[in-house]
Structure formats: structure tokens, C-alpha cells
């Protein structure tokens, strides 16, 4: 039964004792000796010992691996906590529980930290890639940055503080990118406006700076590098300089057009064809914003027109020069300055026919003469105005004397009241003549001292005219006194002879026809006052009395009276004796 159990070990539980019992039975049957049996048992013990040792070694190794794993887990846990900067992670106590329990306690924490680390790495990689991209755009090597791939993340420091630093850096770079992008867009807009004004192709100009600046490319894809900004700034400066040069050129051409138009009396219709050129003649650089206002073809068009007008001016030089001479003579005539127009015209004709002078130089010389003539006329204006007042006062004085000789001045005839009012005003004006003459003399002398030359009025020194007038006025006053004395004498003589010879006509009433109130037929006043032209030389009265102006614009004046001819004639003296009444205080 025992043998059967040994032969069929599956029937019962196999143990070391049952196996040893089976071995004893087998030895008994075989007849093994005790030595052999001891030797076999010793060998079995040794093999069992080896098995135990091997198992112990395996268990020790397993424990060592677990301890190493625990140490590695704890180390990794510390590294992760340090790298992630997570101070709130609860690390289990080292002495709590078995090794496997400690590992089991650390494993969830490690897994959570690993997941957090992966998330942090992605965040760092994303931020750093954006930083790298913007830096590449600023540096101008964005393509190289794309080829370099994703940036390397430093896993030793994945803390939130470090991530915030990267975010701050990214925000600064994004702000700088935005600022640069605005600068680029401003530059592009300026280039567009300048190209529009200059009539240039905007796309060809802007693509030369950088291809990404084309309008077909999105705003965020435009180059914002230092090189692009520098090129854009240089392009804007070059275009502004070109704009300034073109504007100056166009303004010079416009000024030339105006000069030529004014020179040749060009019609307003013909001038209006170049309004787009002349509209900017006084504009500043910033004020010119109309598209194509400074295009090259427009400038060339103006140059062609100036050249055409220059050629036309050369063919019309004689007419233009004489027109300028007419203007010059008219200025001198208004300023009462004597000139020799015939000699001036002959000189102009000689210069034109000789061809030794450029037409523009001749016109410029005449323009300079006109400017100087206007300046001289301006310096004489104040004195000439007073001369006009003086002459007008002298005319009123002459009229008043003729009026006072009229016996019917107080009659109720038609227009008598008008003459009475005029006489009142004339007396007021005549009383102002001495002061006006004194002022005129003072201003004339000051003018002559300032310019070291004589003030000549229509070829006659004005001071000489004033001196002559003063002498004539004095002679006239003496003549009046003589007439009054003579009248008193005749009245006294008549009163003495009347009882003897009877009454006779009064010498105060002329028997002849009445004198007409008005200016003298010979151009001078009855009282010897100067006319609009007054000469001190006899030859001037005969040769220059009817002085004319170019093209008949200046009116001929009356013949100028010589000093010896201004004296009262015999007929006038007789009229004074026979028809002059005492001047009443009021009409």
C-alpha cells in the first residue's frame, strides 16, 4: 500500500517525508548500503540547501530592486517637485509600511507629477516656439527659424515662475512686433501716398523693399525685421526728397509760365489748361497730396510749354519790349518825370536787331527799370499829392478872382447859388495855400537832401516853381494894393470934379462886355497862378508844351507860360482898373 502510494503520488499530498520514505523503500529493495544511503542523503541535503540559497538570493535581489525602485521613485519625486516648483505635494514617510506599500503610496503621486510635467513641457514648448518665431521675424531669418524646428525645453526648471517669465518675454515681443507692424504699415501707407503723388508704381517700389509687403499678403505675415524697417525708412526719405525736388522744379516752371503769360497777355482759357501745374506754385511739400500732381509726364508737359512760350516770346520780342517801355513811360508820366521815349525805343530796336542781347535779359532789364521807376514814383507820391492839391487850390484861387470881378455874381440867375457855395469853399481853400506851399517846400527840400538830387516836376525844379509862385503871388498882392489906391484916387477925383462937370460914368463899371468867369484862354490863370505844367524857360513853353505819351495815352497839356509871360497884360490891368470890385467878406 505504501509502495502503491509512492508509485502514484497524485493520490496523496507529496511531501519531503513521503518522498524520503519512498526512497528508503527503494533502497531496501535494491539493497543499498548505508554508506551509499548516507552519501545520497547528504547529496539531497546539499541540493536542498542550494535551492534555498538560490531562492534567498533571488529574494534579496528582488528586495534590492524594490529598494532601488523606491529610492528612484523618491528621487524622481523630489526632482519633479523641484522642477515643477510644486511645494504643496505631500511626500509619504519613509518608514511607513513595507517597501511595496511605500512604492504603492508614491506611485500615484509620481504619475500625477508626470502628467503635470508633460503639460508643462507642452506649455513651455509653445511659449518658446512663439518667442523663437517672433525673434526670427525681428531678426529677419524666420525661414531659418522654421527649419530649426521646435525649441529645446529645459526640463530642470518647469516652474510656473519660469513659465511666467517666458510669458512676460512673449508679451514684450508681441508688443514689439505690434509696434513694428504699425511702423511698417505706416511706412507702407506713406510710400503709397508718395508714389500716388509722384505718379510711380507703388507695387514695384514696395516689393523692392520686401516681397511680403504686397497687399495680397496678410498683415501678420509682413516682414517686420530691422532691415525691412531700415529699407522702408530710406525709401520714404528718398521719395520725399524726390517729391521736394519735383515740387521745386514744378514751382519754377509754374513761375516761368506766369511770367511768360503775363509777358504775352495769354488768355485765361489758355492758362486754365495748366491749372494742374500752377495750383501748387505756393504750396508746401506736405500740402501737395493730389494723385499724380508731381508725375514726371506732368513736369515734362510744363517744360515743353515753357520751351514753346520761350520760342514764341523770342518772335514777339519787339512787341513785348515796347509794351514794357510803355509801362515804364506811363509810370514816369504819372510821377511827372521827364524822359526821352523816342531815344529809349530806338535803343530797344537797336538791341533787338543786333542780336547781341538775349530776349530774356532785355525783358529782365526793362522789368528792373520798372521796379526802380515804381520805387522812385513811390518816394515822390506824397509830394506829388501835395502838388496836386496846391495846383487845384491855385485854380480855385483863379476862379475866385474871376468870380469876384463878375458884377452879376449876386444876381438871382440860374446856378448863382452854386457859384456862391463854390466861392465859400474856394476862399477857405485859398487861405490854406501859404501853409500848403510852406509844407511842400519843406518836404521837397527834405527829399532833395535825402537823395542829393533836385526834385523835378515835368522837367522843372519844383522849388523853382514854388519860388516863382511866391514871387507872382507877392506881385499880385502889390498889384491889388495899387489898384485899390488907384480906385480910391479916381473916386476922390470924381467927387471933386462932379460939381463942376456933372456926373459921369463910374470907372468901376466897365462900358465893354462882361468878363466870363472861368480859366484864361492862354492856359494860365488871371492871377498868374501855375497851370498843370509850369516852366521857367521860354523854350520849354514852345517845344515841350504839347508833350505826348506812347500810343496817345497821355493827354497833351497847355502851353507853359514863361515867367515874363505870366505877368498881367495891359488888357488885364485895364480890367483890374475898370472892373475889379473890393472882395467882400462874405458873398
UniProtKB/TrEMBL annotation:
Keywords: Cytoplasm, Microtubule, Nucleus, Phosphoprotein. GO terms for cellular component: cytoplasm; microtubule; nucleus; spindle. It comes from the Eukaryota. Its main location: cytoplasm. Residues 528-547 have a biased composition (Polar residues). GO terms for biological process: cytokinesis by cell plate formation; microtubule cytoskeleton organization. Residues 477-587 are annotated as: Disordered. It is found in: Cytoplasm; Nucleus. Gene3D superfamilies: 1.20.58.1520. One of its GO terms (molecular function) is microtubule binding. Residues 477-493 have a biased composition (Basic and acidic residues). Belongs to the MAP65/ASE1 family. This is Microtubule-associated protein. It comes from Macleaya cordata. The lineage of its organism: Eukaryota, Viridiplantae, Streptophyta, Embryophyta, Tracheophyta.
